[in-house]
Design brief:
about 25% strand; four-stranded antiparallel β-sheet; Rossmann fold; about 220 residues; six-stranded mixed β-sheet; globular; alpha/beta
Length: about 220
């Protein structure tokens, strides 16, 4: 088991009452799975991703990551666990505009305090893997959407994560770029990386080994 969520509730107060973003949500993810997460807008996909990534808290329930009790950790411990285990890929890329491709990919390694020579080798490997060696000195605004997403994926992968969270990873790409990114995820999953992708696309969802549907902040088993 990689992670387990038991009876997770998250709510916001609105007009004196609770509005549930996650409502008695239960989820178990095994190591090596490729999960496709689907649901209408407002179903809780992004909130669930932020909870899994430890970027957001929840109000009730239990969260275990590799048998570690996440809800008992302080924010510094959660950040360390995230930086060492989880790669997050965003629809809007979230690249740092004032950093080059090389520097964007290198950033997660700085958090891990990896020495310079090792960082250079790891970044060079990623640039080569994604065929973007020639783009390493460019800035995000000089890249196409597909190239920016490749940089985002390279940045997420450089820490050799156990889990990749991909939030609508092809939402801004054309169909050819989208197929290339999804095939890349499939290959990474074959290498043993667990992947959870949130998607509105039936064709993207078909790449996964298991489909999970969310509705009103809960897993919809119907």
């Amino acid at each position: 088991m990689l992670l387990k969520l038991n009876h997770i509730y998250k709510w916001v107060k609105s007009g004196g009452r609770r509005v549930f973003l996650l409502n008695d949500l239960n989820l178990t993810i095994e190591k090596g799975e490729f999960i496709s997460l689907m649901g209408p807008s407002g179903s809780g996909k992004s909130t669930l991703f932020n909870v899994i990534a430890m970027l957001d808290t929840f109000d009730e329930g239990d969260y275990f990551f590799e048998n570690e009790t996440i809800h008992d950790l302080n924010s510094k411990q959660k950040t360390k666990l995230f930086n060492e285990n989880i790669g997050f890929i965003f629809q809007a890329y979230h690249l740092l505009d004032d950093l080059t491709v090389y520097e964007n990919i290198e950033t997660p390694l700085l958090y891990k305090k990896i020495k310079s020579s090792e960082r250079k080798a790891l970044v060079a490997d990623m640039l080569d893997k994604f065929n973007i060696v020639g783009k390493k000195d460019l800035f995000p605004h000089q890249l196409s959407g597909g190239q920016q997403q490749l940089v985002g994926i390279a940045r997420a992968l450089i820490i050799k994560p156990k889990l990749i969270l991909a939030d609508e990873p092809t939402g801004n790409l054309n169909s050819t770029q989208s197929d290339e990114i999804m095939q890349l995820f499939k290959d990474l999953n074959t290498e043993g990386i667990t992947i959870i992708q949130a998607t509105h696309s039936e064709s993207n969802a078909a790449y996964g080994s298991r489909l999970i549907k969310l509705l009103d902040g809960s897993v919809n088993n119907k």
